[in-house]
Fold this protein.
Amino acid sequence: MTTAAPNDRHDDHAVEDALIRSIRIPPRPSLLVDLQRELAQPDPSPRRIARIIGNDVGMSGALLKLANSPFFGAARKAKSVEQAINFLGISQCAALLTGLLARQAIEGNDNDLNAFWEISARRAQAVVFCSRRLRIAPPDIAHTFGLFCDIGIPLLMNRFPDYAETYSEACDDHLNPFTQIEDRSYATNHAAIGCLLARNWGLSPDVSWAILLHHDYRVLEDPATDDAIRSLVALSLLAEQGIQRFHGRRMSYEWEKGGAAACRHLGLGEDETADLLDELHEALHTER
């Protein structure tokens, strides 16, 4: 009698690769390609960057509106894209523009997407706020990570008609990792898909790795994982807790799963954490 011994791991990877290929990852926008090419120069020119952005009138207006918002606005109001770049800095404006391009590239139900982008923008603001208070991550990296960490969700929603039910199940699970619920249903998850998009779009490796790991709270106490990546994951938990409070919910299952480890990594005691979350709550209401 012979027993078949298939390579289960190989088969699992083949299934996962096939699924990922079936999910439409938006290509990197040409405007972002041009912007990144200029940013890679030894001395990027604000004027040339403004010219690149100025080729898209709608994007220029959206960037100016965002740059002049209370959360990102400088001491003076920018009247042109070049002024916005000079006031906020090249890196911060590039991060804002990348987020705007993502919103333009992701397709789906308008009502669902509006709610998704509203939460994503608030998370980006919260991550930037906490990173500045704790001085542990550049604002542009913090903003990009906060905006993109859940970018795989609308892509999975477009691919799987029942994803909304799976998403609700994962949100309500107080024990298992969020991505484990998705993996069980689809053999992939929003963190893996978001990481793939971040890499395809040429975003920072710290951002793409943090997106991949932002529901794996074991990394917070894993010295083999780069400290910058662990810090972004920890910041995402603070942001999540802040957003839950903003919406009047005192309890966050994600905070229960990883909040203590996040605070240990960031060196925050109980009182310091409470003070920071109170400040974040006030900042989010000011921006509302």
